[in-house]
Design goal:
Length: 322
C-alpha cells in the first residue's frame, strides 16, 4: 500500500486508498482533490482572479454554514482595520465579555476563510467573533498584516480583559497567530487566554517532510513562493517572522490541529513540540487522512468534529478551567 501511495496520479483517491476510519462523506468529498495545485502568486492578474474566486466560494460556503450555524454577520472597523463581526443570536449574558479574534487563511494573498472559519465557532461558543481583514500581499508585506492584528487586539483590550480574549487562525492565519503572539511578548503586552494554531507553520525558512511529499495535495513550490512574496526579502529566520526561533516560554495555552494528508502537518507538529519544550500547555489533534484545513469541507463529519474541538478548547480556557 505504501508503494501505491507513491505513484503519480491526478486525484487523491487514485493515489492513496482511504483508511477504514475515514467517514464515507469524507471519502466522497475529498476523492476529487487534485494531488497538486499551483499558481504564480507573483502575477497580479492571477492574484486578482484568486481573490474573486475565494470571495465567491466564501459566500457559497457561508450560505450553507448559516443553515446549520445561524449567526448574525456585520462589517465594521476596529482601530481603523476592517473586520467582520459574528454574533450568535442567543448569546448568554455571561458570554458577552468574551471576544474571539480570527486571522483568516489564504496564503497571505487572498481571504479564503473570514466567513467559513468563524460562523461555526461563533455559534458553537455562543460568543462574538471578530475576523481581522488584514492587508494582503503582494501589495503589503511583513509586518503589515501582523501589525494590523495587533492593532485590533490592543484596541479590544481597552474594553475586555486579556483573559476573555482568544486568538486563532488557519493556514496563513495560523502563521500570523504565532507571529502576533511572539510580538506581544516582545512588546510586554498581556497575552490572550488561548491560541488556536490550525494547519500552520512557525518556521518559514525550511520545508517539512509533508511539504515535500508528492502524495499530498497542494505543491510545496507554490507555498514557498507565497511565503517569499509575503516576507518581501525579510530574513526568514527572524524570530518575529518564524516564531519557532523565538523564546516561546509564557505563550498562552495553544490548540494545534492538522491532518495526516495536510501539507503543513510537519510544521504543525514541529511547533507543537517546540511549545511543549518551552513549557507552554499545547494540545495537538491530528485527523487521519484529512487534507489541509479539512474543516472547510462542510459536509463531512470530520469538519464538525474539528470545529467542536476548537470550541471546546477555547471555552475551557476562557472559563479559566486549565
Amino acid at each position: 500500500m505504501a508503494g501505491e501511495c507513491a505513484k503519480p496520479s491526478d486525484t487523491r483517491d487514485a493515489l492513496c486508498p482511504w483508511p477504514g476510519v475515514t467517514s464515507p462523506e469524507a471519502k466522497q468529498a475529498l476523492s476529487r482533490l487534485p494531488v497538486s495545485q499551483s499558481h504564480d502568486p507573483d502575477a497580479q492578474p492571477v492574484v486578482g482572479q484568486l481573490r474573486e474566486t475565494a470571495a465567491s466560494v466564501q459566500k457559497a460556503v457561508a450560505a450553507k454554514q448559516l443553515k446549520r450555524y445561524p449567526v448574525d454577520i456585520a462589517e465594521d472597523t476596529v482601530a481603523g482595520i476592517p473586520v467582520k463581526v459574528f454574533t450568535p443570536r442567543d448569546m448568554p449574558d455571561a458570554n458577552r465579555r468574551h471576544i474571539l479574534i480570527n486571522v483568516h487563511g489564504g496564503g497571505f494573498a487572498v481571504d479564503s476563510g473570514s466567513l467559513s472559519e468563524n460562523i461555526p465557532i461563533a455559534y458553537l461558543m455562543k460568543s462574538k467573533v471578530i475576523a481581522v481583514l488584514y492587508p494582503l500581499s503582494p501589495e503589503s508585506r511583513f509586518p503589515a498584516a501582523r501589525d494590523a492584528v495587533i492593532a485590533v487586539y490592543t484596541e479590544i483590550l481597552k474594553l475586555h480583559r486579556p483573559a476573555d480574549v482568544v486568538l486563532y487562525g488557519t493556514s496563513a492565519g495560523a502563521v500570523l497567530t504565532g507571529e502576533v503572539a511572539v510580538r506581544l511578548k516582545a512588546l510586554h503586552l498581556p497575552m490572550p487566554a488561548a491560541l488556536g494554531f490550525f494547519s500552520g507553520s512557525a518556521d518559514l525558512s525550511r520545508q517539512g517532510s509533508s511539504e515535500l511529499d508528492p502524495s499530498i495535495p497542494q505543491g510545496g513550490q507554490a507555498l514557498t513562493r507565497a511565503i517569499a512574496q509575503y516576507a518581501g526579502g525579510h530574513a526568514l529566520t527572524d524570530p518575529m517572522l518564524s516564531p519557532l526561533f523565538a523564546d516561546l516560554a509564557g505563550l498562552p495555552p495553544t490548540l494545534l490541529i492538522a491532518g495526516t494528508r495536510d501539507i503543513l502537518l510537519s510544521q504543525t507538529t514541529i511547533f507543537h513540540r517546540a511549545l511543549r519544550k518551552a513549557g507552554v500547555p499545547a494540545e495537538l489533534v491530528v485527523f487521519e487522512a484529512m487534507p489541509h484545513a479539512h474543516w472547510s469541507y462542510l459536509d463531512i463529519p470530520e469538519s464538525a468534529e474539528a470545529f467542536q474541538a476548537m470550541a471546546d478548547f477555547f471555552t475551557q480556557h476562557l472559563n479559566g478551567d486549565h
